[in-house]
Write a structure and sequence with these properties.
14 helices, about 65% helix, disordered N terminus, about 0% strand, mainly alpha
Length: about 325
Amino acid sequence: MTPPDDTVVAAPASATTGTARKRNAAPPRKQAPADGVRAVLRRTLRLRGARIGLVLMLLVMGIAFLGPLFSPHDPTVTIGSPYALPGGDTLLGTELLGRDVLSRFLHGGAVILLLSLLATVIGSGTGMLLGLVAGYRRGVRGELIMRSLDVVLSFPPLLLALLFMSLLGTSPWLVLLTVAISHVPYVARIVESSTLAVTGRGFVQYCEMIGVPRRRILTGEILPSIVAPLTVQFGLRLTYSISLIASLAYLGFGRQDPAVDWGMMISQNQSNVVGSPWPVLLPVLAITIVTVGANLLTDSFGRAVGLDLGREA
């Protein structure tokens, strides 16, 4: 006989046990990545673009950092007439002031690459912190952070750098700081959007429920979940740092003579590029190769982790 609707029917023991188990279930946790860092790197290096990019970057970095050890001459000493043809002691000839082209090229890359790397680390680190706070805290504090960064974003980076340098000088540390500042808004926007997506997930809400300190939630739960887009953004910012710092050196806002860097070599010798191409061609090729290599490597990593770089740029 079917019981009436208001009759209380005892639930089966198995159903009761299942309900109790659900109530006493373990807290939600982050989904463990299907593969670790090594697997992601292997998957990245399987792509031909990644292998080509890595080789190009290592080639230019080797020239920049190891090149001074093989320099045939002092890059600041005049050893011949201006724009002498290759031959004898000058394998690639001389430049505007009669200094050895090859020696100046071998000494000219380390500063640009070091400044680019440091500017990217500082700018990306600052943008990451601001983006984490803005994305997690939200509210007035988050809006204040992001709207302030929008003001910085409204200035073209090269114009902002030229403004700072025309007022404060051309110190390498000022170049580094200016380029780093130009990266902050871009990285912060990416990190904020990624943080907003992660904050609503179960493992973050459970940590908030049981009173885990916010700092630990940010560093131990949210940050590991946004490493992939942050790494891709770091690669994109690095290529931009190289281009921007080389451009500033070309415009005369980098190191000053008799010091040397690749941007300065292009600027000093462009007037005679037809008669003596090597002082211009070598640094242009080096900057182009390292930029292409970094872009290829970044693009391959983005594909390996399933990111759309068209939205991350």
